[in-house]
Amino acid sequence: MNLQDQQPHTLRKMISDGQLTDHTSGMAKGFIQANVVILPSKYAYDFLKFCFKNPKTCPLLDVSETGETSFPIYGKEANICTEVAAYRIYRNGELIETTSNISHLFTKDMVSFLIGCSFTFEHALLAAGIPIRHLEEKHNVPMYMTNIPANTSGQFKGNITVSMRPMTMQQAIKATEITTHFNNVHGAPIHIGNPEEIGINNITQPDFGEPVTIKDNEVPVFWGCGVTPQSVALDAKPELMITHAPGHMFITDIHESQLSN
Amino acid sequence: MNLQDQQPHTLRKMISDGQLTDHTSGMAKGFIQANVVILPSKYAYDFLKFCFKNPKTCPLLDVSETGETSFPIYGKEANICTEVAAYRIYRNGELIETTSNISHLFTKDMVSFLIGCSFTFEHALLAAGIPIRHLEEKHNVPMYMTNIPANTSGQFKGNITVSMRPMTMQQAIKATEITTHFNNVHGAPIHIGNPEEIGINNITQPDFGEPVTIKDNEVPVFWGCGVTPQSVALDAKPELMITHAPGHMFITDIHESQLSN
């Protein structure tokens, strides 16, 4: 079975039935995959406002109505409790469990957020002949904490996290042109070049993911990263917060071609 | 004094001091003007979510922190209580007063929203040689209620309101190209042509504003209108809601050239 050509609802059903437990990278080609953050409703306003105030790092795709397990646009028939292959459960900011089903934790008071993911624009970069080193080297993308503060919203505050892809400066310019049109999934880069300018002191040691080779004629190019809203939310130490586990994204019903910008 | 060339903070100071009470159309040329909605905090989450779910009709520019009179991006030094020339006070959905100062009503529980206004893209249309009939005829823009439902958020629901500008089909195509780049202020048109298709039965009788001439070779072009969030919020009958009075917009510190898209 070629998972790349499957429809999102088919894959989500397989995940729900426990038949599919892998990373979702490359599945349902062309369909938007999303980071997931689920919080009690008392945090929902400040978190929604955090996303609004930080569109490059926290590009909000959809938000459920309170207590609903589906999404108005990106997953009308979805069940957020079972259709992500691996969830992480945090209590008071501490990871306590990784699980494949959160039905027992979900209440009428929960709100689910879908946040854009850079998997989406990597297809477009590849199509333009721009290398994606972590795919070439079969690694997870390297991610770094920066010294750039996100815009604060209520109790949600902290510095932004970036993902990094090395390429030539000519390719970096082309990649900027391309990702400018992907505002729903991070948009243009946050920084190009010297990592120290944004507080990254050792490019060979990412804070998350794995390091990749940077060739002599290449510069590192940094994009806002969907890890930011998760890490900022964790810093606020909510009594309960549920996210997807890294790489196990929610596969939405919306195709890239439906993104308006 | 040429108000067109004044800086936003100068004009807002004049408004605050009672020296300026006019419509703000044409003032501080190139700076974004905004619709204003002020609500008690218990409505803020659903209203913010309403804006997120209806980006064309309710393009949210900025939102204050609860109880703050300034805005994080569009008016860092602003005082929303005095710097709009005319406010409307609604209680339980009924207009009870128009006033030039709301300091006596503003509490630590209020949240202020700034919503994009089509004044912003009219400059760009004029620059491209597209006629703006209501400016030519010195009218307020004609606005119509449609049969197109907005996306519901909590208690906020209703049909969207549109503004209309007549032009030739060639100009309509050009105007669509141009306004596509103004996503922060309504973006591309919602409809072009036959008004009945969107529930407007008499184009000569707008629901708000004033009618304009439509020439034989012209089609009506409809954009989402900032009246929508106000009318939807009023339908929810909040115990207190404060808005700008029509035409008396909040003049923001952000220039058109700073809009990223």
TrEMBL record, chains A, B:
<dbReference type="InterPro" id="IPR009906">
    <property type="entry name" value="D-Glu_cyclase"/>
</dbReference>
<protein>
    <recommendedName>
        <fullName>Putative hydro-lyase BU057_09020</fullName>
        <ecNumber>4.2.1.-</ecNumber>
    </recommendedName>
</protein>
<dbReference type="InterPro" id="IPR038021">
    <property type="entry name" value="Putative_hydro-lyase"/>
</dbReference>
<comment type="similarity">
    <text>Belongs to the D-glutamate cyclase family.</text>
</comment>
<keyword id="KW-0456">Lyase</keyword>
<dbReference type="Pfam" id="PF07286">
    <property type="entry name" value="D-Glu_cyclase"/>
</dbReference>
<dbReference type="InterPro" id="IPR016938">
    <property type="entry name" value="UPF0317"/>
</dbReference>
